[in-house]
Amino acid sequence: MNRVGARLFALRRVFQQKRNGGGHGHAEVNPGPPVTYDYAPIPFQPYNKVIGELNTKFNVYLAIAATAFVASFAYALKSDLFIYEAAWRPPKSYRERK
Q1: DSSP-derived secondary structure letter, 20
Q2: Chain-centre distance for alpha carbon 37
Q3: pLDDT digits (tens), the chain, 98 positions
Q4: Whole-number Å distance between alpha carbons of 64 and 68
Q5: Strand locations in 9-88 (E)
Q6: Which residues contact 50 (CB under 8 A, 6 or more apart)?
């Protein structure tokens, strides 16, 4: 049993983490040149023209998404997906049940 304990203790030292955060001993990877605004896009059209086109496109997306949401919610209510009758209303009288 003493031998097993010594081996487990030695195994613990193998998996012990280094104090420097890695201890790999190799040089750091070069991240490349410093970040500048050289590759930033330069606007070449008037702001009002571009924002008008984008707002038109995004308003169409919004209208389609709202229509799809309303249609799917109406279908869910129509098909009793939320089980509204059984879950949230009090039970009907025995005479009123179908």
Answers
A1: T
A2: 29
A3: 577 777 777 777 666 666 655 556 667 778 888 888 888 888 899 999 999 999 999 999 999 999 999 999 999 989 988 887 777 777 777 777 66
A4: 6
A5: none
A6: 43
